[in-house]
Write a structure and sequence with these properties.
2 domains; 7-stranded parallel sheet; 6-stranded parallel sheet; 13 strands
Length: 377
């Protein structure tokens, strides 16, 4: 008998978590797991990455607490009768609990990034403890997240599961760098560094752009690639780029469907983010044989073997970023060696099939519990 899983998330648009859900939908379809998706606040063409038969609902959530949205989600759950509801991050957890109310449908909740800023306020942490207790299973994507949650008192009397992200090593594989650059309209000659992310504060595009003033002055042939779109800092970042002293060497690619080509065009991926669970961008770049320079607070200890497949560095200011990037650009052969090691490590430890197997096992256990009780939604 197959298993039906309803994913609930804030929106289904371009993003690492959303991409992972799509990849899992394809991978798990071979194991008899049928996926449906409820997006609280919208979808876009990114839904085309899902298997064609995947039902997707846009609940058109209004600003603030929208009880109408919760009621509609509850109606979909009662009609669909999924074996498992899988919520992702805070908003989805709140609405899933409101929708399920007294239902015994198992709830698997996933946290995909470190908590930051206002999420660490005492009253928010108290609510999280209360809501987590209502879940059948809470999972993260890295052990670093579990340690951070434990430090915040969120794991008391709670068994937190870790299901690490994985990557499609066939799709994200090494390609001809020069050809990828030509295809993307990038300079074929000279080193190329880049970032792939939505334009949100925790990604710190402005920090990398500030550092690039120093990097470009020291390495006249270097280019900076920014891939990604959306987020509340996009307009601000575009303005910084337009006024940048080295704007002619900065290339904004926007949202790009062929991210494997983007990664393969780079000599180094730079991740200045302050809030990551397990970065899908990092996994994909490393799978393409591209070394990664990561901020020390990105859950990097699980992905990076220092000086072997990448570098972890404290990135407090632009000087830190510039110093770390330039030290690597000064040693191109070292970058190539780390890139090869990155690819080998991903193939061994982070194939998509391993992640899919973990999800399948978790879903099966929860579905078995659901069917044993004999209670539906």
């Amino acid at each position: 008998m197959g298993i039906s899983v309803l994913h609930v998330l804030h929106s289904y648009r371009a993003g690492g978590m959303e991409n992972m859900i799509g990849q899992m939908a394809w991978e798990l379809s071979h194991s008899g797991v049928a996926v449906s998706i409820c997006a609280l606040a919208g979808t876009d063409e990114f839904r085309n990455r899902l298997p064609p038969s995947t039902p997707v609902w846009d609940l058109q959530k209004r600003r603030g607490l929208d009880l109408r949205c919760a009621a509609r989600l509850g109606g979909i759950i009662r009609e669909l009768k999924p074996d498992v509801v899988h919520s992702h991050n805070w908003n989805a957890l709140v609405y899933s609990l409101l929708a399920l109310r007294t239902s015994r449908t198992p709830l698997l909740h996933g946290e995909h990034a470190l908590l930051y800023g206002w999420e660490r306020a005492p009253w928010r942490l108290w609510l999280r403890r209360l809501f987590y207790a209502r879940c059948d299973v809470v999972h993260t994507v890295s052990h670093g997240q579990v340690r951070d949650m434990a430090a915040l008192g969120l794991t008391n009397h709670l068994d937190v599961s870790v299901i690490r992200n994985g990557v499609d090593t066939r799709k994200f594989s090494p390609q001809d760098k020069a050809q990828c650059r030509r295809t993307l309209g990038l300079p074929v000659e000279g080193p190329c560094i880049g970032m792939a992310a939505r334009y949100v504060p925790e990604k710190r595009h402005s920090l990398l752009l500030k550092a690039f003033e120093q990097i470009a002055a020291r390495h006249p042939g270097v280019s900076l690639v920014l891939a990604g779109a959306g987020g509340n800092c996009e307009a601000e970042t575009c303005e910084i780029v337009s006024r940048h002293p080295f704007s002619s060497r900065i290339f904004r690619l926007g949202h790009h469907n062929d991210m494997a080509a983007v990664y393969n065009a780079l000599d180094l991926l730079v991740l200045t983010s302050t809030s990551e669970g397990m970065s899908n961008v990092t996994l994909e770049a490393m799978s393409c044989g591209v070394p990664v320079l990561m901020n020390a607070s990105c859950g990097s200890e699980e992905l990076i073997q220092q000086d072997i497949n990448g570098i972890v560095a404290a990135m407090e200011d632009a000087g830190d970023v510039s110093q770390a990037v330039c030290a690597l650009l000064d040693q191109p052969e070292r970058l190539k060696t780390m890139g090869a090691q990155a690819r080998a490590g991903i193939e061994q430890d982070y194939p998509l099939t391993k992640t899919a197997a973990q999800y399948a096992t978790t879903y099966a256990a929860l579905a078995g519990k659901h069917r044993t009780t004999g209670e539906g939604a």
